[in-house]
Amino acid sequence: MQNLKRLDELIDHMHARTQTKEHAIELLEFAAQEVYDQVKIISFFESWMKAILLARGYWIHGFEGKRLNPLRNAIKKRPQKIADVLSQGITAEEVSEYTIGMSTLLDPAYLEVIGLPIELTNMAFIINDDRGKIHLKHDLIMLQGKDIVNDLRKLKNYATSLINKMHEAQQAAKAQPTARL
C-alpha cells in the first residue's frame, strides 16, 4: 500500500501489453508484499473495531470453562454490553486472554454497532478470507487489476482519516483546561 500509483502504472503496462520483464518482476514484488499488507490492514481494522466496541461499552473477550457456554454463544451471535456480561457473576479466571476474532467482528450484528462503511466491509471480508493463504497474489492483481488498486486506496484513505480524527481529538483534549479539585 506504500506505492499504489506505481502499482497502477504496472497494471496499465500489463493491460496495454507493454509489460517488460522488469515490469513483471516488479509486479510480482507487489504481489508478495500484498500478503504483508493484508496482515497489516486486518490487524489495524481488527484493533480499531475492538476499540470501537469497548468505547461503546461492549465486551470483546472470550471465556474459559463450560459454565459460560451460553454467554460465549450469545457473543458469537451479537455484541453484548459489558455490564450485562459482568452481571453473570464471572470471575477473572473465567475471562479468556483471547478476544473475539475478525470473523465475528465482520458479522452483520457487530458491523451495525461498529459502523464500518459497506464498501470497506466488503473489502475487509475479502482480505480476511485471503490473509490465511500464504502464496503470491499475482493472479488476484491480474484478474482485478485497477479494482484492487482502487479498493486498497479506499482502505488507505479511510484508515488515514481515522488516524487524523484520533489525532485531532487528542489535540482537542490537550487544549482543554483540566479541572482542579
Write a brief structural summary.
With 181 residues, this protein is mainly α. The chain has helices spanning 4-15, 21-55, 69-77, 82-86, 102-105, 108-114, 118-130, 138-144, 146-175; strands at 61-63, 95-99.
Salient structural properties:
mainly alpha, two-stranded antiparallel sheet, 181 residues, single chain
Q: How would you describe this structure to a colleague?
A:
With 181 residues, this protein is mostly helical. It has one domain (4-155). It contains nine helices and two strands. It has helices at 4-15, 21-55, 69-77, 82-86, 102-105, 108-114, 118-130, 138-144, 146-175, and strands at 61-63, 95-99. The chain has a two-stranded antiparallel ribbon with strand order 1-2. The longest helix has 35 residues, at 21-55. The protein starts with a helix and ends in a 6-residue tail after the last helix. The model is unreliable at 134-138 (pLDDT under 50).
- Strand fraction equals under 5%
Would you report the number of β strands? 2
Structural class: mainly alpha
String of helices and strands: HHEHHEHHHHH
Low-confidence stretches: 134-138
Major β-sheet profile: 2 strands, antiparallel
- Radius of gyration of CA atoms, rounded to a whole number: 21 Å
Major beta sheet, strand line-up: 1-2
Number of domains: 1
Q: Percentage of helical residues?
A: 55-70%
Determine the mean pLDDT: 78
